[in-house]
């Protein structure tokens, strides 16, 4: 159609009459230019030459990598599932009043609270965190914080927990906050943690309510 439109607009009736001759000549030229002597033996030789470029050691390395990857992936998946289940169980016990997520902490855990405020910073042991943050917070509450988990995700040795906490302060007012905790796990214990929360709500609780 492109050729026809060009002929109609540019060459008129003469061009129209010349179409068969032009098409035959063009087809003949293309056939002659594209004819190539290609024997099956040449094709086999080319394949053999390409195959000889692949060294046996490279094939062995590729086979070894392919064989090892599924095992590594399976091992990582098992670690992720175990860590996720461990954290989930800990939060379930916390919600039921039979335990706490802080029970998972290794004695020498590094716990960082992000943001600004009286408790923001890094604590170098489980005991330091309990003494300086957890216990003083509990002393300002008349009911313990009850967690509601929104989601738990695992990636390698890292577990991420998004959860809401709710309690009643000693002055009768509700305390609610949303937390995201990043746990680095080893041997079913938390060895490093980063805690994100609304520090304005947390600081307001600490400022408004005196510990018992």
Describe this protein's structure.
With 212 residues, this protein is an alpha+beta fold. It folds into 2 domains: 1-30, no CATH class; 87-208, Nuclear Transport Factor 2, Chain: A (Roll), CATH 3.10.450. It has 7 helices and 6 strands, in the order αααααββαββββα. It has helices at residues 2-10, 12-17, 19-34, 40-52, 56-96, 126-138, 199-208; strands spanning 105-113, 121-123, 146-155, 158-168, 174-186, 189-197. The protein has a 6-stranded mixed beta sheet with strand order 2-1-6-5-4-3. β4 (158-168) and β5 form a beta hairpin. It is elongated. The model is unreliable at 1-25 and 27-54 (pLDDT under 50).
Features of the shown structure:
alpha+beta, Nuclear Transport Factor 2, Chain: A, 6-stranded mixed sheet, elongated, disordered N terminus
Average of the residue pLDDT scores:
80
* Oligomerization status of the protein chains: single chain
- Straight-line distance between termini: 91 Å
Number of helices: 7
Integer tally of domains: 2
Series of H and E elements: HHHHHEEHEEEEH
CATH topology label of the largest domain: Nuclear Transport Factor 2, Chain: A
What CATH first level of the largest domain would be assigned? Alpha Beta
Beta-strand share of residues? 25-35%
Strand order of the largest sheet: 2-1-6-5-4-3
Shape: elongated
The biggest sheet amounts to: 6 strands, mixed
The CATH architecture of the largest domain would be: Roll
Give the % helix.
40-55%
The strand count comes to 6
Q: What class do helices, strands and sheet pairing give? A: alpha+beta
Poorly predicted tracts of residues: 1-25, 27-54
Could you tell me the radius of gyration in angstroms?
A: 36 Å
